[in-house]
Specification:
The chain is of the alpha/beta class. Helix content is about 40%, strand content about 15%. A 5-stranded mixed beta sheet has the order 1-3-2-4-5, covered by helices on one side. Helix 3 crosses helix 7. The chain is globular, with a radius of gyration of 15 Å.
């Protein structure tokens, strides 16, 4: 499953799908308008997860996003850095591809020593506990809501403001 966060990552997901000959590739795309972030890439997408906003040093918190929510993770990371909190933002368009990378690469993206973590995805939080053993997974674990997207995102906390709040809470408890 590939959940690209913008046009650059969609191109990367498409490249993976075309090159893959041993298994199917599913891409979950959005109809929502999504900005192309300045640091997303085809090459990074092919690795399944990669850093899109680097911290100044060892991160105090790692924020992971996928799909349309990557833009909210990125915005939250920028605001946290502006407040002096050393945040790293990681795009995770494909867990399976990330798991195929070397242990060294995985550690370079998600250092085990950084305990404070937050993920955001407008889908189930199921599975995120592998990457967020300490911290918070923001997602949708219910079924049946209907409203304009903005109202639903606010209801479920799929906003930069909530990511910032959860990141600060994670730093306070786990850093």
């Amino acid at each position: 499953m590939m959940r690209p966060g913008d046009g650059n990552e969609t191109a990367g997901a498409y490249a993976v799908a075309i090159a893959e000959r041993k298994r199917p590739t599913t891409m979950a795309l959005s109809r929502a308008a999504m900005p192309n972030l300045p640091t997303t890439s085809i090459a990074g997408t092919k690795k399944g997860a990669y850093t899109v906003l680097e911290s100044k040093g060892t991160p105090a918190v790692i924020i992971m996003g996928t799909g349309t929510e990557l833009q909210y993770a990125y915005e939250a990371g920028e605001k946290l850095q502006a407040e002096g909190i050393d945040a790293r933002v990681v795009s995770m368009p494909c867990w399976e591809l990330f798991e195929e990378q070397s242990a060294e690469y995985q550690e370079s993206v998600l250092p085990a020593g950084v305990k404070a973590r937050v993920s955001i995805e407008a889908g189930s939080t199921f599975g995120w506990s592998k990457y967020v053993p300490n911290g918070f997974s923001i997602g949708v674990d219910t079924f049946g809501a209907s409203a304009p997207a903005g109202r639903l995102y606010e209801h479920w906390g799929l906003t930069p403001a909530n990511v910032i709040a959860k990141a600060k809470e994670a730093v306070a408890h786990f850093a």
